[in-house]
Amino acid sequence: MTVVRNPYTGETVGSVPVTDATAVDDVMRRARRGRLAARGLSRGARAAILDRAARLVEDRAESFARLIVSEAGKTITQARKETARAVNTLALSAAEARRNAGEIVPFDAYEGSEHRQGWFTREPLGVIVAITPYNDPLNLVAHKLGPALAGGNAVVLKPSALTPLSALRLVDTLIEAGLPEEVVTVVNGGADLGAALVAVRDVRMVSFTGGFATGEAIARTAGLKRLAMDLGGNAPVIVLADADLGLAVESCVSGAFWAAGQNCIGTQRVLVAREVYEEFRDAFVARTRTLRTGDPSDERTDVGPMITPEAARAARDRVDAALAAGATLLCGNELEGSLYSPTVLENVPADSAARREEAFAPVVMVQPVDSFEEAIEVANEIDYSLHAGVFTARIDRALAAARLLEAGGVMINDSSDYRFDAMPFGGFTYGSMGREGVRFAFEEMTQPKTVCVNGTDGP
After folding, report:
1. What protein family does this chain belong to (predicted)?
2. Spatial strand order in the sheet of 226-230
């Protein structure tokens, strides 16, 4: 059994059975039955199940939110928002099951095909392995399951061993809503189990959210199957001299420290026009100092714990290394158990891990830049990117930044951490494989089948 602990108190929240890697054959036998059961569901039936599940989650929103707080350490405010997003994700998936059925193909528009007509449908892939992280234990699971079920697939779900309880409750809710039990198989285990699953030939797709090292290992092991991966980020936000500094400060503070910084699109590098750098920096640090760190179940808490004390210590060690290399600490870097205070750095060396690697912690660096061109160059210096942001009052600069920034999404007059569940979401440079966002994930998780009828206009 794996014990699930509250990141803040260390108390046991629950436990789940562990699936050994040697049991993969049994898991796949069930998944194959699930594939047949899923294919037996009409589009309307899939949509109805997803709609009912969305309503059930909405009706039990506070219970789901409290579970997220207890196993993931998100503040109650953040957990409620995640629950609301999961409701939306399920509802969007239901709509996709009804809407995205395929298209008419205009065969007769081309010479030699005048007597042909036809269409293509979107058909399920079969069995999908979904591997999810701890930082959004409900909505990221919904982002895997919703589109996969809408498309008529069976799923083997491997949630994070640190936060499996929200995933299990969501699956139970889907079954209560009418989903045949064997359509989703939940397994709990370590890297050896994950490696065994992704290597199975009958698995037609692996959908993974997590780190680059694991993503590379999956790519080496998976063989000939579809891969969709949302990997790490190191998001830049550019603040130009004509920006609304009040909006930029508030948005970037939220973007940097939401979910204790355990956020792949969280703001990590803020690049500020030198003319307004000191004003922005001082206001940013002052606002950061007002954030309350502590008990995530307290309505007044702004920043809860990191997922484990070990993760918090690793964040501090990385900051200490940057400070030893010449960075300046503006605030934070205080550690108490799994609580790590919101930390702001400047003068971070270009080769420092704190600047070049994903922090996945409440750590942000601020840096002055002397031109728009320099801001773009520094923003693009990392070879992987999910989101970026830019604050400016000039539409020409905003559109130029949107064109030049190497990122999967560019948020204008918003921080990098904005995400709407219907938008395409994924990496842009190294490691970019597929897209999430319900419609786009649905299309990744289905395949076109063309039907062409050859006939004549008359006897």
Report:
1. Belongs to the aldehyde dehydrogenase family.
2. 184-186, 154-158, 127-131, 203-209, 226-230
